Amino acid sequence: QVQLVESGGGLVQAGGSLRLLCSASGDRFNTYAVGWFRQASGKEREFVASIGWSGATLHYSDSAKGRFTIDRNNGRKTATLQMTSLKPEDTGVYFCAAHSIWGPDQMRPTGQSTDSFDYWGQGTQVTVSS
After folding, report:
1. 77, 117, 82, 89: which is closest to 101 by C-alpha?
2. In angstroms, rounded to a whole number, what is the distance separating the alpha carbons of residues 81 and 79?
3. What's the confidence (pLDDT) of residue 82?
4. With b meaning 16 or more CB within 10 Å and e meaning fewer, what string describes 88-101?
5. Sequence-distant (≥ 6) Cβ neighbours of residue 31 within 8 angstroms
6. Pairing between strand 10-13 and 124-129?
7. Does residue 99 register a pLDDT over 90?
8. Chain-centre distance of CA 112, in angstroms?
9. By the 8 A CB rule, do 126 and 91 touch?
10. Where does the pLDDT of residue 27 fall: very low under 50, low under 70, confident under 90, or very high at 90 and above?
């Protein structure tokens, strides 16, 4: 199993940047894919970005492409989400999530939906003012 803790959220003006950090504990972090999700008030949790175990596989939502960058450091057991050109619509609670790369018969693809991820952090608030 893996435990996840997010940090780095805060209040930023539109056009600004933030870097979110996901710190993991537990064994074999390099056998987990990691994702970032966000949830605005009154809305469903939505996918932002995900990264495979080695960092070679990357997925982004349309809203994140070109503005956000996901990365990971397996030695430090961390994953980051660098966010630039932030907009008020990026406001929400950002969650780090993870799922094992191993399925019952074969490797699992890196997830892009909430259903794919088994482990979740508590979230960190990001507020972008206009």
Report:
1. 117
2. 7
3. 98
4. eebbbbbbbbbbbb
5. 53, 100, 101, 102
6. parallel
7. yes
8. 10
9. yes
10. confident
